[in-house]
Each structure stands twice: as C-alpha cells, then as structure tokens.
Design goal:
With 288 residues, the chain is of the alpha+beta class. Among the domains are: 32 residues, no CATH class; 135 residues. It contains 9 helices and 4 strands. Strands 1-2-4-3 form a 4-stranded mixed beta sheet, with helices on one face. The chain is rod-shaped, with a radius of gyration of 35 Å. The relative contact order is 0.14.
Length: 288
C-alpha cells in the first residue's frame, strides 16, 4: 500500500471529566516532524502519544492538537472532599484574620482546588488513558485517509508511466529510419566540403557521428526506469524517496534524448516525456 503524506483525522471523546478532542493534520515533509499542541493537563502523556505517532507515520509533518474541556459538575456522582474543604475553610479564615482586606474565596476557586472534587490522581489517570485511546483511533483514521490519497497518486503515476511506455513503443521503430535519413543528409554535406574522392573519410565521420546520435540506449534506460517505478509502487510502503530518485533519472534520460535528437518527432517526444515526468515528480513529493 502506498500512502500520501497528506491526511486529516479528528476524534472526540466524552469522558467523565469532560470532553477530549484530538485533531491530526499531516502534510508533506522531508523527514518526520511531529508537533504537539495540548492542554497542560495532558503534558505528562505527551511522550506516549509521540511514540504512537512515530510508530505509525514514517515521514511528513504531523500537527497534533488536543483540546480538553473540563466539565466535572456534569457528573451525577460528584462528591466534595469534606476533609479538604474543611481544611481550606480553616486556612481561609486564618488568612482573613491576618489580612482583613483579603478577598474571600469564590465558589469557582474552591471547586478547582486540588482534592475538593474527588480523587484527582484517578481523574488524571483516566484522562491520560482516554488521550492514548483517542490517539490510536485518530492514527487509524489518519492512516486510512493517507492510504486513500496515496492510492489516487499512485494511479496517476501509473497512468503517466503507461503513457510514456506507449510513446516509447512508437519511437523505437522510427529511430533507425531517423538516423539513416540524417546520415544521408550529413554525407551529402560532407561530399560538398571534402569532395567525392574521400569516401573513406566521409564514412568514418558518419560512423562516429552516428554513434553520438544513437538514442537506443536512452530509450532502453527510460523503459528500465519505468519498470522500476512500477515495481516500487507495487511493493508499497515508504516509496517517496526512491521514486524521487527515479524521477531524476528519468528526467536525465529525457534530457539526453532531446539533446541527441535528429528529428522533430524525437524532439517532440522528449518534451512530452519531460512534461509527464514533471507531473509525476510533483505527485511523488506527496508520497510517504
């Protein structure tokens, strides 16, 4: 399976402590770059979440946002910590006795005081567990999105490969004719310059130049690189860097073909190849 580096996933979890929302966005990148933006209550679980991401994603820039909205009073089983509440009241009275101008505690201040609303440690552990579960679900959704996008990109690349391969099939029988026609024109010009009596020199010059303009090797290497592109796509996995290298090699051969061309048809084909290769290269940049 070939995956794109572009994907999106979002997961929302209603838990006893409130609402947890996890959002993953991934775009193309040279290496794996994971950034977290999360509530302070979840900072302790960031290493575990990062480990999950690095285990599921090989390459790309991944932005993870975790939003947590606490809603402890929404539960029907909330109980106030009597001992903590009594101690807080005692401390409040002592502070106001020492500092008469001190403002009394508000209800919201009291409710947010550690230990007032039940077992804070248990609540924090439940929140961290929910964050890990949400991350696993989000990564599964992100992987599916990246796989769908990767399938579309792979199909486009295969279509361009087929187009180039078909054009190569049309060119191969034309190459000997094009070279023969060009050699004939060259021989006529050489005879004008060197004279008809120096046929050995003319044949030697034509033979040397014929080797230089023979594009059979370039056509063969283009076909070989196309075979490798299809093989890499079929193998799946992290194929982006390998395909990027193959695009460079294909472009090199297309440039050489254009520089050695001796006919309009070969020159036009070289331009077609370069356009198709560039289109593939743009899509390869998005593959993992």
């Amino acid at each position: 399976m070939v995956c794109s580096m572009t994907g999106y996933a979002t997961i929302a979890r209603e838990i006893a402590q409130g609402t947890l929302t996890l959002e993953l966005r991934s775009v193309n990148g040279r290496y794996l770059d994971v950034q977290f933006r999360m509530a302070e209550e979840l900072r302790a679980v960031e290493p575990a979440l990062r480990e999950l991401v690095t285990g599921a994603v090989a390459r790309g820039k991944v932005d993870c946002r975790i939003n947590y909205v606490a809603a402890p009073l929404a539960r029907g089983d909330v109980e106030l910590g009597a001992e903590v509440l009594a101690r807080l009241a005692q401390l409040s009275r002592a502070v106001r006795a020492a500092i008469p101008d001190a403002q009394p505690l508000r209800v919201s201040d009291v409710l947010h005081w550690p230990g007032v609303l039940g077992d804070e440690a248990a609540s924090a552990e439940a929140l961290r567990t929910s964050a890990v579960e949400a991350m696993r679900a989000a990564l599964e959704e992100l992987g599916a999105a990246r796989a769908r996008e990767g399938g579309r990109l792979a199909a486009m690349i295969r279509e361009r490969v087929a187009r180039i391969r078909a054009r190569l099939g049309e060119l191969e029988p034309l190459v000997p004719q094009a070279i023969a026609a060009y050699e004939e024109k060259l021989a006529a010009k050489l005879r004008e310059v060197l004279g008809a009596g120096d046929e050995d020199r003319i044949r030697q010059e034509i033979a040397v130049f014929g080797v230089r303009i023979d594009v059979a090797e370039e056509l063969s290497r283009l076909a070989t690189h196309l075979d490798e592109v299809e093989r890499v796509l079929a193998a799946g996995g992290a194929v982006g860097k390998r395909l990027d290298f193959l695009m460079q090699e294909l472009n090199r051969e297309a440039n050489t073909l254009g520089s050695k061309s001796v006919s309009r048809e070969l020159s036009a084909a070289a331009l077609e190849f370069k356009l198709a290769i560039e289109q593939m290269r743009e899509q390869v940049q998005n593959l993992e």
